[in-house]
């Protein structure tokens, strides 16, 4: 599992910027917050020492998620370490099948192999699993959910009155960030084709990748050979195709996630999606250029007003000042920012739009989305 992000606060990661929703300060260590409630669910955080595991805790605290108790679960090598959260001291427990006895909600972010092995075990023992890996996303029996987009997909799952648990999948970070902006427009004019180019930050590969990017930047500026352990090539002052395995069709796995997950979330097997995913030397937060082709006409002014009213979306689209979304502006923020809203000149009769989207991969792209799913269970 990845090292905890909180153990190394990077100076390149902003805490407050612009008009987006600002996250609160780090968890209080002196007072017990009101989120601890005896009538709340028992929560397990699986992979608590990893980047997303740490962000799970941050989001639970930020949103005052009402829990009765929390179990901090990780690999054997992390077991026994102590972690302070909301005024209480916790001992990290080794992840085992019996860890889920009495658990109501299990937030998983420990990798696909762990999820495949223990996700069904947790569900069988009565927990509702919200899984951040790709293990169950394309399972037809598992809802793939973005709360602002397709909440009905998990409408049959609740904590109370159930005889056994369930598994709900968190979509891929790039899919979440893209569909937060594309879906409100899709509802109005129906997207028939979507072309996505992503510019993905180091955060997508975890805390170790973020630390290596900082290290490489210092090394290159000092004239030294860069350390290349995570991506096997220079990341600082460079960009390259996403490091996911390339499939026989020439697309990599990250690109195919955008294709397949969009179709499942929109419940539309006919929508045409193509993607190119690129790693860029940005510390945190992904950016995406999205071209949309619609079945019905949609002009840019109407699209801009739709986006302004969309939950979890903020529009930053000031042409006069040349101010549009940036990864820095959305880092550590809940909202997905959209800008560069313009008519696609290659399509006739207002049937196409281009937009530019930025979102925090660890926040809305992972932990926040999962906690929002858990909130819908209450």
Explain briefly what this protein structure is:
One of its GO terms (biological process) is isoleucine biosynthetic process. The protein has helices at residues 51-62, 112-124, 173-189, 207-221, 253-266, 300-308, 327-330, 363-377, and strands at 42-46, 69-74, 82-85, 88-91, 93-94, 105-108, 128-131, 166-169, 191-200, 240-241, 272-279, 286-294, 313-315, 336-343, 352-359.
Describe the structure.
The chain is α/β, with parallel strands linked by helices. The protein folds into two domains: 178 residues, NAD(P)-binding Rossmann-like Domain (Rossmann fold, 3-Layer(aba) Sandwich), CATH 3.40.50; 191 residues, 2-Layer Sandwich (Dihydrodipicolinate Reductase, domain 2). Helices cover 26% and strands 21% of the residues. Strand 14 and strand 15 form a beta hairpin.
Question: What is the H/E order?
Answer: EHEEEEEHEEHEHEHEEHEHEEH
Structural class based on helices, strands and sheet pairing: alpha/beta
Strand order, sheet with most strands: 10-11-9-12-15-14-13
Strand content: 15-25%
Q: How many discrete domains?
A: 2
Please state the oligomeric state of the protein chains shown. Answer: single chain
Gyration radius (Cα, Å) is 20 Å
Strand runs, count: 15
The parts where pLDDT drops under 50 for at least 5 residues are 1-34
- The average pLDDT value, as a whole number, equals 90
CATH level 1 name of the largest domain:
Alpha Beta
What sort of overall outline do the alpha carbons produce when their principal axes are compared? globular
**CATH topology description of the largest domain:** Dihydrodipicolinate Reductase, domain 2
Separate helix tally: 8
CATH architecture of the largest domain: 2-Layer Sandwich
Profile the largest sheet. 7 strands, mixed
CATH superfamily of the largest domain: Dihydrodipicolinate Reductase, domain 2
Helix share bin: 25-40%
